[in-house]
């Protein structure tokens, strides 16, 4: 299935192998940091399109930085009280604390108009104006991520049995993230993570009926009216379940790839509906959650959602 990415075979290995792989990968940048474009590790850079800059402009900036850097902070400012600057930066989504310390070392961070290069600086995120590369950071930032969950990963932030879980993909965050709903351990695909509790709650609440789409691999031949049957409703042990849409995406005679969209979220719902109709699912991938699509995102990769996507999600549930 295309959306599961080139690494899909790897995902069917046991949890032990996956853990070994993770250990081997230790020391490499987290997927999300790679996604920001840092090839060999290094700090996550805020996404920003820079206009072409002239040498004069660069010289002016350097001069400005020197002035600001050399000017001493007023007595008492930034000592003792408040939170450590790198912690505030990390919470605002600029990367891990370590990456934020590097931003400070690189003189890219300013507080109240002065470049800061000391790691001990404390700030009050409510009062101090904090900028990175000249852009103000929000004091209370919400984080919104989309993960292509590989098969074998448990849909929880922690797993007492040491199995690979969603928490492994978002370690060392300053803020607690929630996963928006669940996927079965063997189901792959799109799962959203955020620290916006109300958004997470609404996206999974039946009242808002957010549509999710899945690609299911089943064995054919299938009857012509399978879609109609699923849309009319399938009787399951915990009540009727209906699909909103159904289409055959691929058909190689015996093997079928079908897309099922529905707006409810009962456990194993797609697998149960297809199985009850006589077509057990060999493989299941979630490809869409409301307005958010999985697209070409590789298996195991985490990405920040764009502002547009977050806006669409918020509108979807009346926020
Ligand atoms: N339906 C299923 O059967 N499994 C999932 O993980 C999600 C929907």
Word description of this protein:
This protein is an alpha+beta fold. The chain folds into two domains: 55-139, Roll (Structural Genomics Hypothetical 15.5 Kd Protein In mrcA-pckA Intergenic Region, Chain A); 144-316, 2-Layer Sandwich (Pseudouridine synthase). The chain contains nine helices and 17 strands. Strands 7, 8, 9, 10, 13, 14, 15, 16 and 17 form a nine-stranded mixed β-sheet that branches. Strands 3-2-5-6 form a four-stranded antiparallel β-sheet. A two-stranded antiparallel ribbon has the order 1-4. Strand 2 (109-111) and strand 3 form a beta hairpin. The structure holds uracil (URA). Uracil binds at residues 183-184, 187, 268-271, 284. One of its GO terms (molecular function) is RNA binding.
